[in-house]
Specification:
Elements: H1 2-25, E1 31-33, E2 36-38, E3 48-51, H2 72-83, H3 85-99, H4 102-110, E4 115-121, H5 136-153, E5 156-163, H6 186-203, E6 209-213, H7 228-247, E7 254-258, H8 260-263, E8 278-283, H9 295-304, E9 308-312, H10 318-330, E10 334-337, E11 341-343, E12 353-355, H11 361-369, H12 375-381, H13 385-399, E13 405-406, H14 408-413
Parallel strand pairs: 3-4, 3-10, 4-5, 5-6, 6-7, 7-8, 8-9, 9-10, 11-12
Antiparallel strand pairs: 1-2, 12-13
Helix pairs in contact: 2-3, 3-13, 4-5, 6-7
């Protein structure tokens, strides 16, 4: 009998494993159908979520820093001048570990949201030095971790390359050198496509990943007036190129395309039928909360007959947040408000949670804004290293979920439960 039972158990196990495998495959991928996003069960998906900004691409203003330390590169340089390379590298490693944790993801899901937009610096997925590491293996492991947390919490993830090689915007948000060199340099374009191909291959079977937001807010408005028309053509061409590259390894995931001028101008697109699973991501801040405030997006949506999604909006009082959210829901445009977390510097928090400013943080802010043109001035203006180190360690404590403060009014304005 034992000889019969053991093979029977093995057979039953194989059948169960096969059933489980098939069951997982049935979850499938969200797809574009006309102007809608449709889940595998046939129901429409209306994206409701937040941006994990400042985590994998630090932006100075979210930590109370100002113009001279507004990008990751500027911050990193100022920090190294204050406390040295080794301490700064460890600070960034601790920052990555604590700024977003499984507790943060669980909290976001419990409010009722269904999606997270995950901005990242392209260097995270290279072996270039970035935030205390120089390892794309670390970068992929980090993405795998947070996407795993989101899977457990029932959240979709939109992967957003917030910083592209060479810079796509020419502002602090893309950690660039003041110009969108991505569109001028073949090497940058190739690296951009190569990273997305590798990323898509890595996540090709992952149904928690909703879409690839391939480029964030390209070509800042008004700053490059003489070059805008040429840059727009380069953007249109590059977006078609990277989509086709992604499709060589991944035909499952939605590819999101952004217009130029901070994600506002969609007249650049000469072809939107080259792929059957693309959509558009737009950004808009400080506008009217009636349809007039987004009429251009609605018109483009009609023209393209493809979904539009508000990848970023926010930075306004709760009343505006609520009004704009209701508008987007009325017209079937999904949203992820910006940002999830930031430092409290005034009465307007505009985030789901915020951290208090640590002791001595103003020393960091003041030094970053000081005249640091040469080594003499660096030595002259540098704050006491012990106080500076205490400020950085204090920030790591403040950013942890247990020490952050929930902004219940803001969360309610998003129609969520705090």
């Amino acid at each position: 009998m034992k000889r019969l039972i053991v093979p029977g158990i093995i057979l039953l196990t194989v059948v169960l494993l096969a059933f489980t495998s098939n069951d997982k495959s049935k979850k499938g991928f969200v797809k574009v159908e006309g102007q809608n996003l449709v889940m595998p069960d046939g129901k429409m998906l209306h994206i409701k979520g937040t941006n994990l900004g400042n985590w994998l691409n630090a932006e100075g203003y979210l930590l109370g820093l100002k113009n001279s330390a507004s990008s990751y590169r500027q911050m990193d340089e100022a920090f190294r001048e204050m406390v040295g390379e080794a301490f700064t590298d460890q600070f960034w490693r601790n920052f990555q570990q604590q700024y977003v944790t499984k507790e943060d993801i669980s909290f976001i899901a419990k409010t009722g949201m269904n999606t997270i937009r995950l901005p990242f610096h392209y260097k995270l997925l290279t072996n270039e030095p970035f935030m205390g590491y120089a390892s794309k293996q670390h970068g992929y492991a980090l993405l795998d971790s947070v996407i795993g947390w989101c899977k457990d919490a029932g959240l979709y993830v939109i992967l957003d390359m917030h910083v592209a090689p060479g810079g796509q915007t020419g502002m602090n948000i893309d950690d660039s050198y003041g110009y969108p060199w991505l569109f001028e340099t073949d090497q940058h374009k190739q690296q951009f496509c190569d990273i997305w191909k590798e990323l898509a291959k890595h996540f090709v079977s992952n149904t928690t990943v909703l879409a690839y937001d391939v480029i964030n807010e390209p070509i800042a408005s008004s700053f490059f007036k003489n070059d805008t028309a040429r840059l727009n053509k380069q953007l249109d061409s590059l977006l078609r190129r990277v989509t086709k590259v992604i499709r060589t390894v991944d035909k499952n995931h939605i590819v999101m395309l952004s217009g130029s001028q901070w994600g506002n101008d969609y007249s650049i697109f000469t072809d939107w039928k080259f792929d059957n699973n693309i959509m558009f991501t737009c950004h808009r801040y400080h506008c009217d909360t009636t349809e007039a405030g987004i009429q251009d997006f609605l018109d483009y949506r009609t023209k393209f007959n493809l979904p539009f999604y508000m990848g970023e909006t926010g930075h306004e009082p709760d009343q505006w947040i609520a009004g704009f959210r209701r508008l987007l829901e009325r017209v079937n445009i999904g949203w992820t408000y910006w940002p999830y977390k930031k430092m409290r510097k005034d009465a307007k928090q505009n985030g789901m949670v915020y951290m208090e400013e640590p002791a001595n943080w103003q020393l960091v802010v003041d030094y970053a804004e000081s005249d640091r043109r040469n080594f003499e001035l660096i030595r002259k203006n540098r704050p006491n290293p012990e106080l500076a180190r205490a400020a950085f360690n204090g920030l790591i404590q403040q950013i942890t979920f247990r020490n952050c403060i929930r902004d219940e009014g803001y969360i309610k304005s998003l129609g969520m439960m705090p």
